[in-house]
Amino acid sequence: MSEYRLSDLLDMSIIQKLADSNFSVSGMPMTIVDTFDGSFLVRTGFSDICANFHRACPESMEQCVISDRAVQCHLDQEVHQYRCNNGLWHIAMPIVVSGRHLATMFLTQFWSDREQVDRDYFILQARRYGYELEPYLAALDAMPHFSSEKVDYIVSYDKALVRFMADLAEQSLRVIEARRSLEESELKYRTLVENVPIGVFRIDPSGPGSFIKANPAMLRIFGYESFEDFNDVTVTGWYQSSADRRSYLDLIKQDGMVKDLELPLKKKDGSPIWCSLTATAQYGADGEVQWIDSVIEDITERRKAQEALRKALEEMETRVRERTADLAEVNDLLRIEISERKHFEEKLRELSEIDYLTGIFNRRKLFDIMEAEIGKAHRYSRPLSLIMLDLDHFKLINDSHGHHVGDAVLMDMVLIVRRSLRKVDVFARYGGEEFIVVCAETSLDGALVLAEKIRSAMAASSFPVVGRVTVSAGVAEYRHGDTEAGFIERADRALYAAKRQGRNQVAAV
Q1: What ranges do the domains of the chain cover?
Q2: By CB atoms within 10 Å of each CB, which of 79, 213, 322, 431 scores lowest?
């Protein structure tokens, strides 16, 4: 608010027209003066005595400025009537917006019809400032006279005008501040989207489908070097089969969204890739799908592992069928096969829940656990906290030493953090170098202690090749009504604050 003037909040040309109309009806001169620099924002009916004499002479002009500022001592009054240092009557009305005095409306240069003008005073005034006497007295005689009833009527109208301008400026200020808040939120959202390792994009689903927005992770997933190349591609070019796209669009139109839909797609060079897609349709005023917002994750390696396990299971079942001749032998083999099957099924389950690099829970399993823990915290009013961890300057490690060293740092970091955790704590990889600890039955204070323990352990450790690596941590406690995404977003805000404070920090919201 401190940087705004009244002219920033209102179209003063419109106010000038209102003032001109007011003067043509009432005959009462009016000015609106900027509090910051004393400049005229609005001026109408300005009389010769001020324009050609009082404000034309530097010495008497200084008296005008002193008189204009006198209203600062009477901001608690809607209307302040006073005689200025040059001997003329003024009525001042402060224009206050959000508690700040931005400008003053002056009704000026008039006489009451019951007042006897002291001409001797103005003759002395002319001599003091070197005015030509006859033109000065002519200007004095030309000033309008009003009855007290008419002055009261004009003041009543202009009080309402001042309130109208203040209210209008308040509304304009709220719009400006709302727009600024929106821009800040959009900047934070854009920063998050541009740095998250999962693809985020928006498409126009009509025709072959064109990209409206996409984050940098999309280039990595689909093998593009620049956004220029990527934007030349239509969505249809992704699909290995056009039938898959038709099926996907049918689901969107039917339900308005899809979640964790696994699709066979292809990269820029035509090589196959499997992706998990979650998308939500956004509708226009006509009820038709206007665009689709989506997140996408490369699950090719996971699918390969699942396929390898599936083939192993098929081979195992084939061996079982071939050995049915000897029942006893089959029973023995069957017990072995059942054990192997359980082992393979457990491995398959782990692959869907465990992060392949670090061996801890992955993002999918994290959300399942959070859903259950939030349900318990809500039902039984028990404390629940989150710690979001992020390796400081991890990109520099990858850029300087290569991703194989970066992967080794991630795995060593997991070992260090695990030694600091309790049995009840759940540790998961959120994505890239971001990790989350779910602290059941733990208040914010308890989670802050644990986060500091983790931070200290990391700071005290030395990593091969790279040496010292630190983490920043953001801590949040569950609030009634939090969703999984909202809970994580608050922890992320705290993490962002820790980064802002210089990294290797713990912060909370």
Answers
A1: 6-176, 197-298, 302-353, 363-508
A2: 322
Chain segment 249-296, per-residue pLDDT in tens: 888 888 888 898 898 998 888 899 999 989 898 888 888 888 888 898
45 confidence band (pLDDT: 50, 70, 90) = confident
- Report the DSSP beta bridge partners of residue 34: 103
* Total Cβ atoms within 10 A of residue 459: 12
Q: Among 297, 373, 433, 434, which one carries the catalytic annotation?
A: 433
Confidence grade of residue 192 (pLDDT, cut at 50, 70, 90): low
**Any idea which fold 6-176 has?**
Beta-Lactamase (3.30.450)
Listed residue (358, 402, 391, 386) closest to 458, CA to CA: 391
Per the document, the length of the chain is 509
pLDDT of residue 324: 67
Q: Is 350 a catalytic residue?
A: no
For the question of whether the overall pTM of this predicted structure is more than 0.85, the answer is: no
Query: Distance of CA 203 to CAs 157, 277, 296, 431, Å?
Result: 55, 13, 13, 24
363-508 sits in which CATH class? alpha beta
Task: Check for a shared fold between 6-176 and 197-298.
Answer: yes
**Phi, psi for residue 282 in degrees, rounded to 5:** -115, 130
CATH of domain 197-298: 3.30.450.20
